[in-house]
Every structure is written in C-alpha cells, then in structure tokens.
Amino acid sequence: MRIAVLVYGRLNKCVEHYENIIAHIGKHHTINFFMSSDNSSEPLLKGFLELYTPIAYTNDPVMYKYDLGAYPGKRHETNIHNMTCHYINKNRVFALLETYVEKANVHYEVVLSLRLDCVFQNQFDFTGIAENTVYIPTGNDFWGINDQLAYGSLDTMKKYNSIDAKTLLDRKLSIPHPECLCLANIQFHGLQVQRVNLQYYRDV
Known about the structure:
Layout: E1 2-8, H1 14-25, E2 30-36, H2 42-52, E3 56-58, H3 80-104, E4 110-114, E5 118-120, E6 133-137, E7 150-152, H4 154-161, H5 165-170, H6 178-188, E8 192-196, E9 200-202
C-alpha cells in the first residue's frame, strides 16, 4: 500500500520517534513523507530531512493578518497563534502533496495527517478505507474532536486538511478552539467519522 504521511508543525523529537512511527505505520508499506513546519531550527530540520527524506517540504515562516482570537467564545487555554499556525501548516502540507500527485501522477491509497510528538503503542489499521470517511483515534476530543492525527482517502483528507478557520468562525459554526474547529470543519464538509482504537501518547 502506498501511504502519504503529512507532517505538520513542530519537528521536536522527530529523530527519536522515527523508528516508532515507521514500525507502527508498517514497514511493508511504501511511505512517502511531506512536511510543513515554520522556523524549525537547523539541527531539527537536518535530522528530519536525513531520516524521513520527504518528497516535498517547507520550513518557511507562517504569515497571517487575521486574529482568530477576536471571535467570541475563546477558552482560556487556547493559544491562538499556535492554533493558527496549526491550520496554516495543515493547508500548506496538503498543497505540497496535491502538487506532487498532479505532477508525478501518483496514487496514494491512504493519506495520514500526523504530529511527530506522538508515540504509538499499536499498529495502524488501513484496511477497508471508505470514501468520505475520516479515521480518528478515540479520545483527546476536548469539547470537539481529536485533531492530533487522522487518515483517509486523498479526497477525504483534502477536506480535512484544507480547513478555513476564519470562514467557520464567520459563520458561527464554532468557537476559536482547535478541537471544536476540527469538528466543525468535518461537519461542514459532510464527512463521516470512524473512531479507531489507536493507542498512543504525546511525548512533549
């Protein structure tokens, strides 16, 4: 199976977690990495590039001119800047994948959106991937739905990753909160959600 892994955000501990990630996705698969980070340090970027050998990546600074924190309902624990970068990086990394797919005429059976600070304790199960269905681990919903990792078909993950938080907030479909916006985006696109028993913890 050919799998595209979309890495977004910080590259902390990418070297330490490499073997865990590869082993639990499955070494028998063909795994291609794509990455969008913003201003990761040179040592972190070097370590990532050497191990993960991404098809395409960006480490450019994230730029935006809007304030998602200006919308009502913000919870005290929400870091608006980190949340904004989270969405921009998800958009950017999917755009890298989409460009490559179009130019190289490559087909991926699964697209996996992933944080590198996750440490897995059981295998991913990619059998029976259905269209218009996003597969999300049980737990870590925090008033919305787990936004740390998800997988599905290319078309499904385009809708999942191409989140437009400002539009969702303008339409009053969510509050400025990452898990709430993730759920609102899924509902906005009419995606089905399949919860999966993927055991992991974040090594932060």
